[in-house]
Structures
1.
Amino acid sequence: MRAFNVFASAAAVILIVLLTVARPAFAAGALSVGVQLEPPNLDPTSGAAAAIDEIVYANVFEGLTRIREDGTAAPALAERWIVSDDGLRYDFFLREGVTFHDGTPFDAADVIFSLNRARDENSTNAQRVIFEKISAIIAIGPHHIAIELSQPIGAMPIYLGWGDAVIVAEESAATNASNPIGTGPFKFTRWRKGASIALDRFSGYWGEQPPLEQINFIFIPDPTAAFAALMAGDVDGFPNYPAAENLSLIERDERFQIIDGAGEGEMIVAINNGKPPFDDIRVRRALNHAIDKRSIIEAGLFGFGEPIGSHFPPHNPAYVDLADHYNYDPARAKQLLTEAGHADGLDLTLTLPPPAYARRGGEVVAAMLETVGINVTIRNLEWAQWLDQVFTNKNYDLTIVSHTEPLDIDIYARDGYYFQYDSEVFRALIETLSAESDETRRTEFLKAAQRRLADDAVNVFIASSPKVGVWASGVSGVWANAPLQANDLTAAAGAGRKVRNAETGADNIAPLGIVGLFLIFFTGAVAWFGRTNPAYLAARIGSAFLTLFAAAIVIFVITELTPGDPAAFMMGLNADAKSLAALRAELGLDKPALERFWSWLGGILHGNFGVSYTYRVPAAELIAERIWISVPLATFAFFLSTAIGIPAGLLAASRRNRKSGKAIMTAAQAGVAAPNFWLAILLVLFFAVGLRWFSAGGFPGWQAGALPALKALLLPAIALAIPQAAILTQIMRSSTINTLNDDYIRTARAKGLAESDVLKNHALRNALIPVLTILGLQFAFLVAGAIIIENVFYLPGLGRLAFQAIAQRDLIVVQGIVMVLVFVVVFASLIVDLAYAIVDPRLRRSGSS
Amino acid sequence: MTNVSITPAKSTTKNVGFRFGVGVSAIFIAAALISNFWTPYTVDGFKIAERFASPSFAHWFGANHLGRDVLSMIMIGARISIGVAATAIFIGMTIGVPLGLFAAAYGGIVDGFIMRAGDLVFAFPAILLAILIAAVYGPSAMNAVIAIGVFNIPVFARVTRGAALSLWKRDYILAARMADRNRVQISIEHILPNISHLLIVQGTVQFSLAILAEAGLSYVGLGVQSPTPSWGRMLAESQTMISFAPWLVIFPGLAIFLFVIALNLVGDGLNKRLDPREKWLV
């Protein structure tokens, strides 16, 4: 029974640790907002990523002006402004009594610093082109500045309201990427990489306090998980709901409201106009005739979208309806292809980025093109690869993408844009358009531009994608339309329900020293209580370390086999020589492989797994945050599986000739065959979607308390445990039956012992010996299974981190995760083997009992 | 799902189970073969009228969000599943069995080295290997084959070694050694034929595990890529539609479940037929 004692005390220790973790703190009026993409950093002035504005715009950072929901500019940090008659000078009068979140007062110096930084030659600001037209910024007084322009820009107040023009303080500008400090009504609190960003109400805000106390942005890239999160109440809504297929269902559910807004997105099948045979307009027109927009709207957008015929959204007053400029006509398409000399058909590649509309729409497009004799090869790419291969290097035939920037028809006039559309006529049109200020004439030019694109069949224009927001019914004050790619939540009010205030997760990887101490302690205990042969212990521990060492070699060699330059592979898009060189130096690629291996290994021994290429934080930190989900999940499942499997196996053995015993074995047979992720989906269907007893996913964090955390892990743990419990039942049963056939058991029975006593006092311990070996292997399977199950329940564990890292080519993180998991597996089997030594008397020191 | 159609009967249980296993496995294999030249519907294209068609006579298992027939996709999925699993087992056997024979024949350092290397592979569950390979080469069916195949090498090496070791002590092996046959020759001529039944049983068990592993890998997107249908990806794709089109997750899952159960029953049956004592293969 000692084995049981060991397990029982281990379980007790784990429980005590879990229960002593901090209690949850609650915040009233909080809102959990689901967004699809995690921003690369939080400085809106440094890059083009819309995901940054989606978090910080208006909430954390403010500009001189701000964009209203209807797209017009309103006063923000500037109370008012005047413009000179020639349109070359703007005077802005700044608000007084404004402070940044760190207490720094706001004045003219901050404005001058911010705008100069944006227009600086070395600025990485995405809209530098606009700021470059500023010739001077002059401080007239501490709260009065003047901006002088080299040429009039009518929309200057609007541009100054964009995320790229927010005002930052010189003191904090350098660290805004990771710790943004602005003047907005919310201050940045915490970023759990790969999971969420929390903003808290800023009590020192100059304006009216926002209704919300806290905003949690939760990153949910997967449409499946988005639906689960919504149903489970883990998020209060999505400004842009990614899973259109569920909208009909959500519409009927009174817990939710759908806020249908006009989006700026145009979904297109982009054609590489510069590459033969697509430079032939007949081929492009054939493609236009061969593709049925309405089918794609059904399949890719689940009916949410309006057919378009040019690069323009229907809600705009200057819109021309060209949706049927090329009607769906496969015969005409074939005829055009024949005219173009492709009577025998055509081979092309359709390159698809990850969003569901592209992948689903892509399959339909491919099928429709096949019917007119075009052979389509589908190539699925991650965003980074898509940006690199399609957008930057124009290495594609067709691709499907949604362009979401407002009023972006001018991209067709840009040199080197990825469509490779080259039209003097169109360029001239756009040039006259930008110089024109008269609204009526502008509308005319815009209409002409739309017609031109349709006539030239530049792309296959499919649909305008609406912005569909889904919110819990109690939520108010959220924007329906999206004039900017931002989520202004300053007027939003929550459902009034209390939402947990998640505190910082475990930030430190358990130092290897502690693990080592535990090992020594445990080994000592085993040696003492088990009176085990020290040579056996030493050999076993030695071989565990050898295994780890060999695993490190394998991991290093596999990643070493990366085709080409690993640094270039990781940086992918737009890698400039300077940053490539920096990364190469960081990875030490200039040194010989052996030297790099030793320094990598040495780093690991110190808990240093290198710096994540994507997040620019130590990989160890990322792994440490996640390991506290994956390992507890596997451990939880391990206890469940043991608690079910061993008694069930014993029962099946003692009743092996009865119906109940056979029923157990039939159930076990079924349990072994059920894929755990399928069980997980079924559990979600019954207990979360149906009965609503559990969340369909998500993890509140250990700081929310042990019980909520364990509750969140319960369904995943059950799904993981069932197949393993079934295996355990089978092995326990056969091992017990084998033992019961042994001579000494017959002797015990002959003594007249009751069958239950025979089982408990004599057979059990020996029957457990082979079972223990299996337990060691089981833990490995549970850890591996946890990685998959995390996907079903979108737990932010190591599995999710691994798949994100794969998508972002973050080799350093992948290496680290695999190494850590191998360590967990080896460590677990070592512990089990040592426990084995306690149970198996044959491993004892000779001389003692 | 415990409601499996094998009812434990007194004496014929094993036979019923075995027959059920053979029958169901045969159906799956036949479906996979037939899918090479015929499926009830084509699985490409977009059939707007049939979107989310619920199970009916026209679509036995319903149709998905693209109006594609689930039964047809499951048939092709069976082909992919069997293909990946069989290739992986082939890799595991062709490398693992010789290694095991070698380890048993020579013992000592050779044996120790081969077995420790096996332990190393056991420290890498297939998914970790798949993650490593996918990180470098991108996800693909080949990725799944390699990951599952490599994981199977030490499994076969162990079984072969264990069985071979017990044979090396037999008299007829001694006789062969007296006849001046070397260890490699003896392994091939005498050991291998005498352990082949064990390898067949183990192969069946591993095959069913490989089916499960392939489904898991394609579920997380590390296996066969779109648009080729695969059981795992069918589950992943239709998970969001579970509340209004549950057939989309029930039937592919059921396919995996039934096929694996059937293979396990075949394995059990073979084991009992070939070995009268009830022994568990680990």
2.
Amino acid sequence: MSVRRLAKDQPASFAFSAEALEQAQWWMAKFPQGRAQSAVIPLLWLVQKQEGWVPEPALRVVAEMLGMPVIRALEIATFYTMFQLSPVGTVAHVQLCGTTPCMLRGANALKTVLEARVGHRDHPSPDGRLSWEEVECLGACANAPMAAINDYYYEDLTPESLGGLLDDFAAGNAPPPGSSIGRTGCAPEGGPLSLTDLALYDCSRAKAIKLPNAPEKVLAS
Amino acid sequence: MPIAKVNGVDVEFENGMTVLQVAELAGEEIPRFCYHERLSIAGNCRMCLVEVKPGPPKPQASCALPAAEGQEIITNSPMVKKAREGVMEFLLINHPLDCPICDQGGECDLQDQSIGYGRDATRYDENKRAVEEKYMGPLIKTVMTRCIQCTRCVRFITEVAGVSEIGLISRGEDVEITTYLDSAVMSELSANVIDLCPVGALTSKPYAFNARPWELTKTESVDVMDALGSAIRIDARGPAVLRVLPRTNDAVNEEWISDKTRYACDGLSRQRLDRPMIRVKGKLQPASWSEAFALVAARIMAAKLERIGAIAGDLQDAESMKATLDLFRSLGVANLDCRQDGVKLGAGPRESWLFNSTLAGIDEADALMIIGANPRLEAPVLNARIRRRWLSGKLLVGVIGERADLGYDYNYLGAGPDAIGQFVKQGAISKQKPAFLIGQGALGRDDGAAVLKLIGEAAKALGVVREGWNGWNVLHTAAARVGGLDMGFIPGQDGLCARDMTAKGALDVLFLLGVDELDLGKTDAFVVYLGTHGDAGAHRADVILPGADYTEKPGLYVNTEGRVQRGERAVFPKGEAKEDWTILRALSEHLGAKLPYDTLDQLRGKLFADHPTFGQIDFAPGSIPAALDLAKLGAKGKVGDAPFASPIKAFHLTNPIARASVTMAECAALTAGLKHAAE
């Protein structure tokens, strides 16, 4: 994590789209009278969904909507690293996990791919379509190495599969999320390796057991 | 009351106290950075760790832990010592070792506590972090690398000052204190964060690199920038006042002072009148004291009594006003006034011009009607008190007058006198302790007497004065005003008031005692100015008698509550200037009407004998059951419909000292710029 600052170049103004505004009001209505500022994180998230990042004028708009001092909105926007304070890639923003399990499983090689393909971390590619950053553990260690691209997890990445994903995103597609080697969730690679005996599942190996302290009647039945 | 054991000694405490407070009751010193009695509890510095039984076997942050019956609190065990050393070492990991060039050096909590509770060396040899400087306006200098993130400044600005402009952004190792996009802190109380900052992160910009605390002579005195009479400490080196700091006085200012009180002190050494002057052919020329006295005496003796007048200014001590009053009364002059702003007070009983509930009484009030005042500008420290009461949810505030941002919500009831009328017919309010706060903006108008009568009737109807409670509160703006009114410094039989005295052709000789807020453009009298600064009064004067400002003379000041407080001399008057009363005493001899006192004590003796209230030092009469008949206040007359306006247009420029101050000029320009930008 590095020092988080608002981007230097900021748009002059910000306004919610009609749809986002409706959602914002739905969030605000969830909280009691005078407690609307509890909705600040959802509202900032709506801003980020709309713009891709959280521009400074949006902080003022959100703070005003919620009746809170704008410095409080800034505190929240800078506290949570999920809020992007400067523009990110328009088609894909890659959050590559670099924490120990992913690193051991080859995250560094993925970094090289991203550096070559997108450019320096935290800065969008020259065409502005792609960007990447390194993040702390995203909790999918069983499928390491992994990255969150836009809203979804892409797992079991290799330099090749990540390159393919980037090509796909750059072409304007939305590749299906999940394991790139076809695992279901975090099931073992190449199918199950243990508990494979089918007899385990047909009750053939079942036998009566004696429950300690159980009454005779139950045992008889 | 519950009992806890502190280091083996039983201590009785009140329910709701924290472990830290209980330990202090027992006389144990608990080191702390983030905890402050007047702010909410944050519990983030961890310096106040103590051992508490029963409880988990680890040190506990005592500031945030409620004390309980039968608790055993240990503050001197090896565990506590080690915990403090550990916290101290962590705090110092990122704190620069720049004490020799830090303005906080010598009065730094971190320095003191690291000596008292820290280890002798650090075991940390990684890189220290550095933080970018932040801009917080012309008063607060920042060296943010020194910040230990105690968040006292954030809590003060949010809770006490009520402006929510400072925040703690980012997280973890990267947290930083900042204002939004490096804007200046726009609060009249902003500079108190400098006192609150336990390290050198927020220091005083005008005082930067000026002096070390151990070089300064410290004098406890009273502030004159507003009518509250805040308790201050004047720090001087040689002849120069270098800074003004607040002292704790729970009855008046708690431990805050306004930015004007704190920073107008550079005006004390600028634009000063340091020698007598006489106007010759339209130009002021230096003169000797005897020449000046001779000229003034000749002019006064040549004039008819009804063509002589004297006006007292806003910053005067009671002694100089008393000497002026005695001198001119003994000559038979009736044109006397201490009310430059033309406020229609001074006729009725003393209670009619006092803040009767006392300032501390605001903490009990449950309804407050602010009439023709903007307490945020007229008495920022009082406004913080009102705000605190409002925050507790027990105060209903109404405003008649300017619709200003006061830092709390209020019901806006109207702009002018017509809004008061509706309350006259209304029955008593259902609140227990309702109060009026009457500003000079309501009473300084031409129809002030009629407005006063109207307000008095409304107050009577609402039951503002009742058994055990007097909510009739007049908020003055001038430090000298209540003292002047208390000694009857108002026009005698057929005497002219201040505004009439300055009219064209009204007088032959006009004596101004530090008068700078009056329009002196029309008067064609011979003007004698006794004062400190080259301001409006000196500009018009024909003779200037250089006097002493509030840091240069011992003097009594009566605050808006009627509390008599004693100011002390911190430095000597500039150049040939003298203490005001000695000038008047010398002048009296030239006039052949020698004043009957040779020392300040004799003068005070006469003052106490003539006006016993002055003898009650540090006593606010608000606690006395009121003998105030609200129906008899003011005078009948036509009430205009002009809206009330606060007499303070620019907070930072209300008196000659502040107008001479460079710091205040900067603040005023910033405020005016913002106002302009907003419009």
